Automatic annotation (TrEMBL), chain A:
Gene3D superfamilies: Tetratricopeptide repeat domain. Residues 958-972 have a biased composition (Basic residues). Residues 870-894, 928-1088 are annotated as: Disordered. GO terms for molecular function: RNA polymerase II complex binding. Keywords: Repeat, TPR repeat. This is RNA polymerase-associated protein CTR9-like protein. It comes from Dipteronia dyeriana. The keyword Transport does not apply. TPR repeats lie at residues 135-168, 204-237, 349-382, 383-416, 721-754. PROSITE patterns: TPR, TPR_REGION.
Automatic annotation (TrEMBL), chain B:
This is Anaphase-promoting complex subunit 4 WD40 domain-containing protein. Pfam families: WD40 (PF00400). Keywords: Repeat, WD repeat. GO terms for cellular component: Cdc73/Paf1 complex. WD repeats lie at residues 10-45, 56-97, 154-195, 196-238, 239-280. The lineage of its organism: Eukaryota, Viridiplantae, Streptophyta, Embryophyta, Tracheophyta. SMART domains: WD40. The keyword Repeat applies. CDD domains: WD40 (cd00200).
């Protein structure tokens, strides 16, 4: 039992004070000490004892009393003890300042800490005043400076001591600590070593210092030895234990970790408030998933330490714990706290990463970005960080930057399938080939790694192959993704299925009986949810292969299992639409709309179908609904409305110019609106071009069409036949027939497998205008062959033949062969017209019987004339030959005879000519009058025809445009879904639309023809009136009347063709020809 | 089963070739190929070298259809001007010129016994039957108008008849229309029996299976070939694969395969046991308007032959095995 003896003043007695029985109230002892004027070292001993017992108050009371001015005065000579007391107080406050802790707010803490340091400084200064050279004071000051973090000054304080006494152990230790903090570990190690040499029995702390230095210097084995030594000296040395544990943990081996954790645990048991041990334990429990422990431990650690990095670590542990539990808000806060404790990111980077992750999760991309970038500065090759950055840039829309990072990540870690998957996903929208490569690499890696390749990856590969038109490969991949299932049965055992299902229900694309029968037959019809998309894509692919039957079965099996899969309905609808089964198609779309009544794609499709069904008002409403469903952002719906207006402008058979203008204006507005939203919308541009052409701005519209055509030819998925046709129309309207022909032909071959009778009609019209009668006829015959029930084509063919004949007969010089073929052609024309005439009784077509009969009459008449001409020509031919042979021999006799004959003929001819001239004059008058009439009716007669053409052209183009619109929209809508699907949709729709177009245009054509017919009739009527007048007045011979009639009906014919422009001029010309002829040919023509 | 290209005659005609059929062999000559074209001629070709046997002229406007009498002695050709010319195959002597205005003429076929020529009558919505002895019109099989439609209704043009086919025993006749419906008639009673539904676009070609009188194949602009049970009114199968209109279909003499020609420029061979295309020939460069298997029998005809004709003016001959 340790005791101290306080000598009683002026006696030999002493007061014995048992150190373990110091009174609770220090005043008792103080009283004794003061009363007995006990030596100061006793004061110190007792104070220290209090301290050891944790009685801090008493300790301070004694020392403060011991350093009071009275004592200074009284013990003025006792310097060393006074210094010691002051130093003890200084050390105490230093300690307080160092430990100043927990549970208080940082500011208060900081202030108190400062106060403590100030107190400590005061005491040391006081000690120094007593003796400047006292080394222990300097050591204390050094410690204080160290505690305050002023390492340099602390070092110089210790240096002062060491200069005086190079073996001063406390100074050596202090200096070692200072060096350690300055990062000069080898210097520090030297100092520790010297301290140990000077004072071999020094406490374990020195060895701990040595261990730490060696650890820092990378001499792990020596470090371990030092720690172990420290531990031997003091088995309860927590720091040594923790240090050893850390060394065990770091190699990251299972056994090491176990040993390390045991040590940590022991350290924790010895001293539960070692933050480092707490952190490591928390870390451990984090990995073992005991989050409750983690929180407790870290909270304790946070409570006991003030050390920035350690706290940061604790916060990090806590944040991680919350992060893993999915509490992003809290974990974000703690990551933030952790980051705040860190001065430089490179000290402890993990919380930045965690913070980045949480911010990413919470959608704060900018902050996440900066955090990840900090991580990347320190670990420039960290794959995860690169990937995260890649993702963030995707979210921020900076795809290129994102790709950069992903590519870098892929380069660094060429074995990380995930990186390649991500990269592939990134590239899909921009570079399909590269995306495909990335996905393939990912697949190979996964296969190598024995991993199962996710269906999504396979699906993406398949889709990309699909997009690149590598259909076989796509199919392989889709099949691989699908694996085994009912679809194999459906695809392979077609025969069985049809045997089961030998009813007409196959075409009912809504039929599900097939699957029920299969189920009854013992097959299980299962379709895992994650394979639906792949199956859908496979079906799309089958459609691409034109295996629509198999595709329809797959779509139906999807619907059988997932009746809400709208796109499958729409595909089925598209298939039946392509097969022209509108009713079924509409039903299917309505099924889709039952699932989601606002699905814009379905609405647009319905609108199209309604338009096809000639249900105009409904269609418009449906398009409106589609447009509304997307807040007017859906370009397809807007385009459709634009097209609707365009049709409306041209549709009305009785053209109302006002209405027409309104509709055109509206159409233009709608196209423009789409173009504003999507500057690169080809269809809108096409539409705008059409409207411009409609208004006669051919140059502008040509530019537009040319650009659209160029743009469209860049993509395999965009097939804009319309723009080709429109361009051809413009060429045609500008009189560039050769180019127009080429354009029509290319379009026909490229887009329609040469099956579009409508384009053939355009082609024929161009030939007609170019006066290439035979080409015109052949083209029309082809068109008839393609569209046998279109009688308009037959009529047009008849007109072409008639025109051909008429033009041949008008020629001043023609061979007998020409005339012969003319006769044959006229016979054909008569045949065609007679057939039409007979057919009109049966109402096979909408032509007026009278009009056809007029044609028949005219042709017959022409035929008669032609026959005469033929005979004449033949005779002439013969005669020429004879003449040549006999010329010399019978020149004179011949001459005389001929003269006589000519004389006779001349008289005859003259009479004829007179008749002719009369007729001509009359005709001209008639035409003038007719022209007047036309001018007055709607527009100038000549001009008038042209706009009509244009409109007509516009008509088709319009349609086309509309289609295009559809495609566009499809794109859009599907984009949200799966890419391939979309493309596929697009293509299909296009097809559908094309058909539709063809049909509609035909209608329109018909209408127009009818209209033209009407006009013609009017004219005819007018002309007829004139005729009768003329007859009355002039009493011309009947033959002349007939001829006049011919001329009239001819002009009539011209009108009949969809768009003959120069009827009037032509007939004028003819008349003039007739005039001229007699003069020229007077001698020869009828001469023989 | 397999097709092997044997011979191709480029520029066989001056214009698109629109029709082809085989004239069966007679005692003194093998089977000949008969083709008709837009160039207004009908040509006869000798297999396997496709040597031109003769050129028949006399048609105006394009020749849209040719048919051969089962005896191989006479044949008929028809053109857009709606005349049918019946002629002696070996001498080209005209036997008769048929017309039934205002009805047009599209596909034609002699019945298996050779007593009747059936002609698809286009807009008249009927099939005309001609007696081959007297060359008189003996019957007009009309497709009944849908109920409630007025005579002036434009929709009747949808029943425009494009194609005809006799069943192997000659009791039934099927015809295909622009609207995609197929009508089946009882020939003996000249009575309409029923429609076969399934197509919604023009049916340009029809053929009965030579081995099963119930089975009828149809090809349509909807890119599909259908296989019907013509008696049971049911659709037995639908075959898809062509990318454009299917213009022509013919059944192989053994009844195990059919061949189709399409606007997609291909000729396809379909195995009926698999109901799938087993071969695609793409040697034509334009629409294939006609395909025709050579009938069995005759001297010097070893192996099956298939001929195809196209808008590219050429004729192709394939060995079928």
């Amino acid at each position: 039992m340790a005791c101290v003896y306080i000598p009683v003043q002026n006696s030999e007695e002493e007061v014995r004070v048992a150190l373990d029985q110091l009174p609770r109230d220090a005043s008792d002892i103080l009283d004794i000490l003061k009363a007995e004027q006990a030596p100061l070292d006793l004061w110190l001993i007792i104070a220290r004892e209090y301290f050891k017992q944790g009685k801090i108050e008493q300790f301070r009371q004694i020392l403060e009393e011991g350093s009071s001015p009275e004592i200074d005065e009284y013990y003025a000579e006792v310097r060393y003890e006074r210094i010691a007391i002051l130093n003890a107080l200084g050390a105490y406050y230093t300690y307080l300042g160092k430990i100043e802790t927990k549970n208080r707010k940082i500011e208060t803490k900081h202030r108190e800490k400062e106060e403590h340091f100030i107190m400590a400084t005061q005491y040391y200064n006081k000690a120094s005043r007593i003796d400047v050279h006292e080394p222990s004071t300097w050591v204390g000051k050094g410690q204080l400076l160290l505690a305050k973090g002023e390492v340099e000054q602390a070092s110089s304080a210790f240096k002062i001591v060491l200069d005086a006494d190079r073996d001063n152990v406390p100074a050596l230790l202090g200096q070692a600590c200072a060096e350690f903090n300055r990062g000069r570990f080898s210097d520090s190690l030297e100092l520790y070593k010297r301290a140990l040499q000077v004072y071999p029995d020094c406490p374990g702390a020195v060895r701990l210092g040595i261990g730490l230095c060696r650890y820092k210097l990378g001499q792990f084995d020596n470090a371990r030895l030092a720690f172990q030594r420290a531990l031997q000296l003091d088995p309860e040395n927590v720091e040594a234990l923790v240090a050893l544990a850390i060394m065990d943990l770091h190699p990251n081996e299972a056994s090491g970790i176990r040993k390390g954790m045991q040590k940590m645990q022991r350290a924790f048991e010895i001293y539960p408030y070692c933050a480092m041990a707490l952190n490591y334990l928390a870390n451990h429990f984090f990995f073992t998933g005991q989050h409750f422990l983690v929180e407790q431990l870290t909270e304790t650690a946070l409570a006991v330490t003030n050390h920035g990095p350690t706290k940061s670590h604790s916060y990090y542990n806590l944040a991680r714990s919350y992060h893993s539990k999915g509490d992003y808000e809290k974990s974000g806060i703690y990551y933030m706290a952790s980051v705040k404790e860190i001065n430089k990111p490179h000290e402890f980077i993990f919380p930045y990463y965690g913070l980045g992750q949480v911010q990413l999760k919470l959608g704060d991309f900018r902050s996440a970005l900066s955090n990840f970038e900090k991580v990347l500065e320190i670990y420039p090759d960290n794959c995860e960080t690169l990937k995260s950055l890649g993702h963030i840039y995707v979210q921020l829309g900076q795809i290129e930057k994102s790709q950069e990072f992903m590519k870098k990540a892929a380069k660094i870690d060429a074995r990380d399938a995930e990186v390649f998957t991500d990269l592939g996903e990134l590239l899909i929208s921009s570079d399909t080939s590269a995306a495909l490569e990335a996905f393939k690499t990912a697949r190979t890696l996964m296969k190598k790694g024995g991993q199962e390749v996710p269906i999504e990856v396979l699906n993406n590969i398949g889709v990309l192959h699909f997009e690149k038109e590598e259909f076989e490969l796509a199919q392989q991949v889709f099949m691989e993704a699908l694996g085994d299932g009912i679809w194999l049965t459906l695809l392979d055992n077609k025969v069985n299925i049809y045997d089961i299902d030998a009813s007409a229900s196959i075409l009912q694309y809504k039929d599900m009986q097939l699957f029920r029968l299969l189920e009854e037959g013992g097959h299980s019809v299962e379709l895992p949810w994650n394979k639906v998309t792949v199956l859908f894509n496979l079906a799309r692919l089958l459609e691409q292969f034109n295996n629509t039957e198999a595709a329809s079965i797959l779509f139906r099996v999807i619907l059988f299992k997932y009746p809400d899969y709208i796109d499958a309905y729409l595909r089925l609808a598209a298939i039946s639409k392509a097969r022209n089964n509108l009713q079924l198609s509409i039903e299917l779309v309505n099924e889709a709309l039952k699932v989601n009544g606002k699905y814009p794609t379905a609405l647009s499709m319905l609108g199209d179908l309604e338009l096809k069904n000639d249900d105009w008002v409904k269609a418009k409403e449906t398009f409106r609904a589609a447009s509304d469903a997307t807040d007017g952002k859906d370009s397809y719906a807007t385009l459709s409305l634009g097209n609707w207006n365009y049709y409306a402008a041209l549709r009305n058979e009785k053209r109302a110019p006002k209405l027409e203008a309104t509709h055109l204006e509206k159409a233009k507005e709608l196209y423009t609106r789409v173009l504003i939203q999507h500057t690169s919308n080809l269809y809108a541009a096409n539409g705008a071009g059409v409207v411009l052409a409609e208004k006669g701005h051919f140059d502008v519209s040509k530019d537009i069409f040319t650009q659209v055509q160029e743009a469209a030819s860049g993509s395999v998925f965009v097939q804009m036949a319309d723009v080709w046709i429109n361009l051809a129309h413009v060429y045609f309207a500008q009189g560039n027939f050769a180019l127009a022909v080429k354009m029509y032909q290319n379009c026909l071959r490229k887009f329609y497998h040469n099956t579009d009778a409508q384009i053939l009609l355009y082609l024929a019209r161009t030939h007609y205008e170019a006066e290439q009668w035979q080409d015109c006829k052949k083209t029309l015959l082809r068109a008839i062959h393609l569209a046998p029930s279109n009688y308009t084509l037959r009529f047009d063919a008849g007109v072409a033949m008639q025109k051909f004949s008429a033009s041949t007969l008008q020629k001043t010089k023609r061979t007998a062969d020409e005339v012969r073929s003319t006769v044959a052609e006229l016979e054909n024309a008569v045949r065609v017209f007679s057939q039409l005439s007979a057919g009109s009784n049966l109402h096979l077509h909408g032509f007026d019987e009278k009009k056809i009969n007029t044609h028949v009459e005219y042709c017959k008449h022409l035929l008669e004339a032609a026959k005469v001409h033929r005979e004449a020509a033949e005779r002439e031919e013969q005669q020429n030959r004879q003449r040549q042979e006999a010329a010399r021999q019978v020149a004179l006799a011949e001459e005389a005879r001929r003269k006589a004959e000519e004389q006779k003929k001349y008289l005859l001819e003259k009479r004829k000519q007179e008749d002719e001239q009369k007729r001509v004059r009359q005709l001209e008058e008639n035409f003038e009058r007719v022209k007047e009439q036309w001018k007055s009716s709607t527009s100038a007669s000549k001009r008038r025809e042209r706009p009509e053409n244009d409109e007509e052209e516009g008509g088709h183009s319009e349609k086309r445009r509309r289609k295009s619109g559809k495609r566009k929209k499809k794109d859009k809508s599907s984009r949200s879904r799966y890419e391939t699907q979309e493309e596929a949709d697009t293509m299909d729709d296009q097809d559908e639309l094309e058909d539709e177009d063809a049909r509609e245009t035909t209608h329109q054509m018909d209408d127009q023809d009818d209209a033209a017919g009407e006009n013609a009739q009017d004219l005819l009527a007018a002309a007829g009136l004139e005729d009768s007048d003329a007859e009355d007045e002039m009493a011309v011979p009947s033959s002349a009347a007939v001829r006049r009639r011919q001329a009239l009906s001819e002009s009539d014919d011209d009108e009949q063709l969809p768009n003959s422009i120069r009827d009037n001029t032509d007939s004028d010309g003819e008349v003039r020809d007739d005039n001229d002829k007699p003069d020229e040919d007077a001698g020869l023509d009828d001469g023989c | 089963m397999k097709l092997a290209g044997l011979k191709s005659a480029e520029n066989a005609h001056d214009e698109s070739v629109w029709a082809a059929t085989w004239v069966p062999a007679t005692d003194n000559r093998p089977a000949l190929l008969l083709t008709g074209s837009l160039d207004e001629t009908v040509k006869l070709w000798r297999a396997d070298e496709l040597d031109l046997e003769r050129i028949n002229i006399g048609h105006c406007l394009g020749v849209v259809s040719v048919a051969a009498h089962p005896s191989g002695v006479i044949a008929a050709s028809a053109s857009l001007d709606s005349f049918v010319r019946v002629f002696d195959v070996d001498t080209n002597a005209s036997i008769a010129t048929l017309e039934a205005p205002p009805s047009e003429v599209w596909q034609m076929q002699f019945d298996p016994k050779g007593t009747t020529l059936a002609v698809a009558g286009g807009g008249s919505a009927s099939v005309k039957l001609w007696d081959t002895a007297t060359w008189k019109l003996i019957a007009s099989l009309s497709i009944p108008r849908p109920e409630g439609s007025k005579p002036s209704d434009k929709s009747n043009s949808k029943k425009f008849v494009l194609s005809v086919a006799w069943c192997p025993h000659g009791r039934r006749l099927a015809c295909g229309s622009m609207d995609g419906t197929i009508s089946v008639f009882d020939v003996a009673r000249a009575k309409f029996l029923h429609h076969l539904e399934g197509h919604s676009m023009p049916v340009r070609s029809l053929v009965y299976s030579p081995i099963d009188a119930r089975v009828l194949f149809s090809s349509s602009d909807d890119t599909h070939v259908h296989m019907y049970d013509a008696e049971g009114k049911s659709l037995v199968g639908a075959m898809s694969g062509h990318t454009s209109w299917v213009l022509s279909v013919d059944a192989s003499p053994d009844g195990t395969a059919i061949a189709t020609g399409s606007s997609d420029r291909t000729v396809r061979l379909w195995d009926l046991s698999m109901r799938a295309a087993v071969q695609t020939m793409s040697n034509h460069t334009d629409q294939v308007w006609g395909v025709s298997f050579r009938p069995l029998g005759g001297n010097g005809s070893q192996g099956g032959r298939l001929a195809s004709v196209s808008d590219d003016k050429s004729i192709s001959l394939y060995g079928y095995s």
